Amino acid sequence: MKKLIQNLSSKITLIVLFFLIVSSFQFSYAQNAIEKENASINLSYKISNGIKSIKAIVERKINGKYFGVENLKLNLYLTAVKAYDATNAEGLLATLSTNADGEVNFNFSPAFYKATANKHDFNFIVNSVENPLFEDLSAEIILNDYALDLKIAAVDTISSATAKISKYENEVLIPAAEIELKLAIKKTFGLLPFGEEGTVTDENGEVMADIPADVPGNANHTITIVARFIDEENAGVIEVSKDTPWKILPKANAIPERTLWSTGHNAPIPLVIVTISLIAFIWGIIIYLVSLLIKIKKLGNKKNNSKQLN
Questions:
Q1: How far, in Å, CA of 181 to CA of 167, rounded?
Q2: d(Cα 296, Cα 293) in Å, to the nearest integer?
Q3: Number of H helices and number of E strands within the chain?
Q4: In whole angstroms, how far apart are CA 123 and each of 105, 118, 167, 249?
Q5: Which one, of 99, 95, 110, lies nearest residue 52 by Cα?
Q6: Can you tell me the distance from the alpha carbon of 210 to that of 293, in angstroms, rounded to the nearest whole number?
Q7: Which residues does the chain have with pLDDT short of 50?
Q8: Predicted model pTM
Q9: What is the set of domains in the chain, with CATH numbers?
């Protein structure tokens, strides 16, 4: 009997193990069978006062609308997908994760600028680290390092800005003609353009425009002028800015005075004292009346009790 029970228990154990193994295989197969989602990656670059950056935006389409892909790791490479080479800064430069909007900005270290000091054409590659939810992503962007210069001159009461853009050909700087350059004044919430719209550079790669004399500057008696070139072909922006002395200051907010028509926190102090005193006096009377009513009620209760005793 004992042997029979032992044989049955061993067989049951084997059957249970068999089903557990089959279930684990089915679960792993089901996980692998989940179809990965498709997403898109868009790249753009910006060079501001010589500082380069690459921006990547990863989005997926749901019901006809695009949403950012959060927490997706992206690798940034220069020239080729390989390990980093410190001699020329080629290969893997950085690995970052996208934010809640599906965006990530790649900035570069001083070592990168030192290693690429004589390099003016860049081919950046961005691809995604393997992810169980999304298909592998990859995109490339070309960055052409133009030389953009800005000069500001003042004659009497008229100030003018001159921007010059040059491109590298065989390691030689050549003025870039027939390129649209925009001049603008940097304000708190954006850029205020000035000069003729659609102005292109001349044979010297230059554009010039007078700075509007009635535009308020910065609080430190300066105004910030920006020259910007939009590289539409490669989704990039190259800009340079410069501060120049300026006489017109931004309008200062008037210091609020304590007047009868001011808001509550700027009311005259005597009026505040009188108002608070009146409110306190009225509440005092109300409290006093309530206390009298309580005393009267207590006295009434005592008389009723004494009558009942008698």
A1: 14
A2: 5
A3: 3, 16
A4: 16, 15, 17, 44
A5: 110
A6: 82
A7: 1-2, 4-5, 8, 27, 29-31, 33
A8: 0.69
A9: 40-144 (2.60.40.1940), 147-245 (2.60.40)
